[in-house]
Structures are given as C-alpha cells and as structure tokens.
From TrEMBL:
<dbReference type="GO" id="GO:0016712">
    <property type="term" value="F:oxidoreductase activity, acting on paired donors, with incorporation or reduction of molecular oxygen, reduced flavin or flavoprotein as one donor, and incorporation of one atom of oxygen"/>
</dbReference>
<comment type="similarity">
    <text>Belongs to the cytochrome P450 family.</text>
</comment>
<dbReference type="GO" id="GO:0006805">
    <property type="term" value="P:xenobiotic metabolic process"/>
</dbReference>
<protein>
    <recommendedName>
        <fullName>Cytochrome P450 2J6</fullName>
    </recommendedName>
</protein>
<dbReference type="InterPro" id="IPR050182">
    <property type="entry name" value="Cytochrome_P450_fam2"/>
</dbReference>
<keyword id="KW-0503">Monooxygenase</keyword>
<keyword id="KW-1133">Transmembrane helix</keyword>
<dbReference type="GO" id="GO:0020037">
    <property type="term" value="F:heme binding"/>
</dbReference>
<dbReference type="InterPro" id="IPR017972">
    <property type="entry name" value="Cyt_P450_CS"/>
</dbReference>
<dbReference type="Pfam" id="PF00067">
    <property type="entry name" value="p450"/>
</dbReference>
<keyword id="KW-0479">Metal-binding</keyword>
<feature type="transmembrane region" description="Helical">
    <location>
        <begin position="7"/>
        <end position="26"/>
    </location>
</feature>
<keyword id="KW-0408">Iron</keyword>
<dbReference type="GO" id="GO:0006082">
    <property type="term" value="P:organic acid metabolic process"/>
</dbReference>
<dbReference type="GO" id="GO:0016020">
    <property type="term" value="C:membrane"/>
</dbReference>
<dbReference type="InterPro" id="IPR002401">
    <property type="entry name" value="Cyt_P450_E_grp-I"/>
</dbReference>
<dbReference type="GO" id="GO:0008395">
    <property type="term" value="F:steroid hydroxylase activity"/>
</dbReference>
C-alpha cells in the first residue's frame, strides 16, 4: 500500500512538473496584438474550434473582429497576421531588419537543417539569395536570352494540346511538366520528355511536399517524430525530402564529372565554380547540401506557383469567353500568326491586364510565406515578440474593395482607362509579396505567364468540356490557393 502511495506521489509530482513547464512555456505575454482569448497550454485553440476550414474566410472574419493586426496563440507560439497595404509596407519594408527571417520549425531544423533559400535565415540566406539573384540574372531572368528556352517549352506544350484534337483534358500535368522543364533548363541544363517517368515522379513528390500537413507540435517536441508509426507525419516528410534530394543529387554528380570552369552551362555549374573559389575557407556556406536544398527550393517555389497561376488564367478565360475573344483580337492585331515575343508585351495592354487580373483574382499565395520577428519589437503600442510567426496577408490587399471595386469578379478592365490604356494601378497587385523576401523568381514567372498564355490563346479557343462542369472559380486553399481540378477543351483555330 505504501509502495502504491509512493508511486502515485512520484507520478503526480512528475505530472505537476510537466504542467508547470508547459504553463511557463505557453503563458501569455502582456501587450500582444488583440486576438481570440488565449489560455495557458491550449492558447487560442479552444476559441478557434468554431472557425471554418476555409483559411481565407477565417482570417477575413478575424480581421473584421480583432483589427488589421491580430494574433492567434497555439501551444505557446504566437502567430501574427498583418492585413492592409499600409501595415504590410510598415512591417515588411520599413521594419525589414526585424521581420525578414523565417520561423524555425521541425522541417527547417531537422530536415533542411537551415539550408536553401526559401526557409533559411541570417547570413546563409543573405549570401545565397544574392548569389542566386546574380546568377539567375546572368542566365537571362527578365531578359530576352531566356525567351528561346521558354518558347521551346511553350511550343512543345502547344503541340501536345493540339494532338488532343479538341478532346476534354485536365491541363494540370501538361502545364506542370512544361513549366518545370523551364526550371530544369536553367538549373540542370536539360529538359525532360513529358512521358519521362522519373521526372513525373519527382514532380509528384514536390507537389506532395506542399500538401503534407505540418504538425507545429513537432517543432516543440522533435522526439515525437521518432515514435513508432507516423502519427505526426515526420517520417513521410523525411522520406519525400530524401527522394527529392536523391534525384537532384544524381544530377549534381553528373555535373561534377563533366565540370569545366570555362564553360558554365547552368546554375549547378555556376555554384560548383563558386565552390572552388571558397575551397580554402572553412566557414564557406557553398556546400553540396546547400546546393541540393536551393535546387529543391527552385522547384518547390517556382513550378507549382506558375502552374497554378496559368491554370487560373485558363479557368477565368473559359468562364469569360468575351474576355478571351478580346484578348485574341489583340493578339491577332499585334502579333498575327508569327510566334509571340516579349517585346510585344508593351503593345498589348489588354493581355497585360488579363495577366495582372489573373494574379489578383487567382490570389495564389493569400498569406505569402511565414516570416518571424528576429527580436522583440514594439509596434503601434503592441509587443511583437521575438520568435513570433508573422503572416503577410496578401489577400487583404488583393481583395480590398477600396482598391479594387467588386473584387470577387474577374475584370481585367480595372487596370485600363476608357481608351484601353494602362492606368498604372497594377503595382497594388502584390502577389509576389514585398520587402526583402519578395519572390526571387518574379521576372521569370512574368515572362513564362505571358509567353505561355499568349501562345495558347493565339492557337486555340479554350471552351468548357461538354462532359464536365465548367471550371469552378472557387479555389481550394492549401499551401496555395489553387483552382479545383477541371477539364476543358482546346479547339485549334483554322
Ligand atoms: C506566379 C508565380 C509565382 C508567385 C505568385 C510567387 C510568389 C511568391 C511569394 C508570395 C513568395 C513569398 C515571399 C515572402 O516570403 O514574403 C515567394 C518566394 C519565393 N519564390 Fe516565388 N512566386 C512565383 C514564381 C516563382 C518562380 C518561377 C521562382 C523560381 C525560381 C520562384 C522562387 C521563389 C523563391 C526562391 C522564394 C523565396 C525567397 C526568399 O525566401 O528569399 N517563385 N514567391
């Protein structure tokens, strides 16, 4: 009996200690931005149960209730949502020194180990973001020399679609392979056939990486990832990342064999050359792991986003045949039947407006990517604590009805005056985010969107499929805001 009482005493003491530590770790701090009521340990979880599953709607509702800058607390971690153009500029541009790092979590610490560009912070991020921007500009980001590489993919995609002979199809795979091939040309110096099983598999893995749910609790208690089974999804994440890294690693090995410092073929070669310059520096960050993670980031950040935006553009144009016809009339007028060139864009304000409106209404990154506060910041009377996750709510600008009347409708004319000339208000469309972390591939994405979309509308009429529903304009919110899968027909013009 005494033994039992003693054992119970030990168990109760340990439980009390664990609760005390959890309470201490998760207790609220004074002066945080407003938000739903928060309790020690559970944070706002209990108040959030009633929130809907649609993240965009939930965040809009909370903004209406708590104001432009509000907070949610979960298991001791603070998540701060920043809404409205002025606040976004204040925080991510004027206070960029404090709010440009990425939050650390299980994925960044235990899988990526701080490598890459997308999720890294501090010196490694600065050094490699600068190197990537300089190198990619050298390869023609935003310039004409990349145009022919993109056009090779565009014409391949266009021929694949012509071969369908007007039959209904789901454009996802076609666009994804073509857009990813542009990235492959820049990064690996090679492209893959649409039927290449290895490449298809790699793209599926990258897509999966975006949808595997992340468990914030793993960041607090990483040992949970090692428990038998895979309740927290850590093993699945490790397995996918390992396969992606293997794929990229094999291509890096091939490059090492054929490396010639006098003939830089692609991003991998440029990195290997830089590596040789740092070979006597023990602290160099130009490691193989860094290269692997950077290439992985290019695919993750560059393929899915541009694919999703192009899918939105096709869905909008099938739903709005009058806009599609007007765009085609401009193409016929300015370009005729010759292949499109980037130089045509200046003379095509309506097409430009369609692309800008696709970025706005598609709203593909409603909350961009998470940032973190590098130190405690007092902002407008509130404390934004070090380590808090800060979400830039780009959605609050894209759908701001003071900036864009009737924002829920697709209206390219909002960017044009009564004579069809550009109004110059497209700068308010901040789909690539803002501040020091602004999308690194923006100019490539804009080139791709223009060349891909114009070529398709020049050659085909996009129509609803007679055997499927017209593409829905209500998207699915995951890591990105994507259109629901759809089928359409592409009828070749005579
Ligand atoms: C329409 C297409 C695209 C959209 C809408 C888009 C949007 C974004 C957004 C919202 C961010 C997060 C910015 C932030 O943290 O505040 C981002 C980051 C990034 N994007 Fe894009 N992106 C697109 C295409 C691309 C392409 C083609 C690349 C190719 C390299 C790319 C590479 C990156 C990288 C590397 C980052 C991380 C930058 C950093 O953390 O410093 N993106 N993008």
């Amino acid at each position: 009996m005494l033994d039992l009482l003693q054992s119970m005493e030990v168990v109760l003491s340990v439980a009390a200690l664990v609760l005390f530590v959890l309470y201490y770790l998760t207790k609220s701090r004074p002066n945080l931005p407003p938000g739903p009521p928060s309790w020690p340990i559970f944070g706002s979880a209990l108040s959030l149960q009633k929130m809907g599953l649609n993240m965009i709607e939930s965040i809009r509702e909370m903004r209406a209730k708590y104001g432009d800058v509000f907070r949610i607390t979960r298991f001791g971690r603070h998540f701060i949502y920043v809404n409205g153009m002025e606040n976004l500029r204040e925080i991510f541009i004027k206070r960029a020194d404090a709010f440009s790092d990425r939050p650390s979590n299980y994925h960044t610490e235990y899988i990526l180990k701080g490598h890459g560009i997308l999720a890294s912070s501090g010196t490694i991020w600065k050094e490699h973001r600068t190197f990537a921007l300089t190198t990619l500009r050298g390869f023609g980001f935003g310039r004409r020399c990349l145009e022919s590489q993109i056009m090779e993919e565009v014409s391949c995609l266009s021929d694949k679609i012509a071969a369908l002979d007007g039959k209904p199809f789901d454009p996802n795979e076609y666009i994804h392979v073509s857009v990813s091939n542009v990235m492959c040309s820049i990064a690996f110096g090679k492209r893959y056939e649409h039927s290449d099983a290895d490449f298809q598999h790699m793209l599926t893995l990258v897509t999966k990486l975006l949808i595997v749910p992340r468990r914030p609790v793993l960041g607090m208690f990483p040992f949970l990832g090692k428990l038998p089974g895979d309740f927290f999804g850590a093993k699945e994440l490790h397995a996918i990342e390992d396969e992606v890294k293997d794929f990229v690693g094999r291509i890096i090995s091939e490059h090492k064999e054929g490396f010639d410092g006098e003939n830089i073929r692609d991003y991998i070669d440029a990195f290997l050359l830089e590596q040789t310059k740092h070979q006597n520096n023990e602290d160099s960050t130009f490691s193989e792991e860094q290269l692997v993670c950077t290439l992985r980031d290019f695919f993750l950040a560059g393929s899915e986003t541009t694919t999703t935006t192009l899918k939105w553009s096709w869905a909008f144009l099938v739903n709005h045949p009058e806009i599609q016809s007007k765009m085609r009339a401009e193409i016929d007028d300015v370009i005729g039947s010759r292949p499109v060139s980037l130089a045509d864009r200046d003379k095509m304000p309506f097409t430009d407006a369609v692309l800008t409106e696709t970025l706005r209404a598609g709203n593909i990154a409603p909350f961009a990517l998470p940032h973190t506060a590098s130190y405690d910041v007092n902002w407008n009377g509130y404390l934004i604590p070090k380590g808090a996750t800060i979400w830039p709510c780009l959605d609050s600008v894209m759908n701001d009805d003071d900036m864009f009347t009737d924002p829920e409708h697709f209206k390219p004319e909002r960017f044009l005056d009564s004579e069809g000339k550009r109004l110059g208000n497209e700068k308010s469309v901040i789909s690539f985010s803002l501040g020091r972390r602004v999308c690194l591939g923006e100019s490539l994405a804009r080139m791709e969107m223009f060349l891909f979309l114009v070529t398709i509308i020049q050659r085909f009429e996009l129509k609803p499929s007679p055997t499927h529903r017209i593409p829905s304009l209500h998207g699915v919110v995951g890591t990105a805001h994507a259109p629901r899968p759809y089928h359409i027909c592409a009828i070749e013009r005579t």
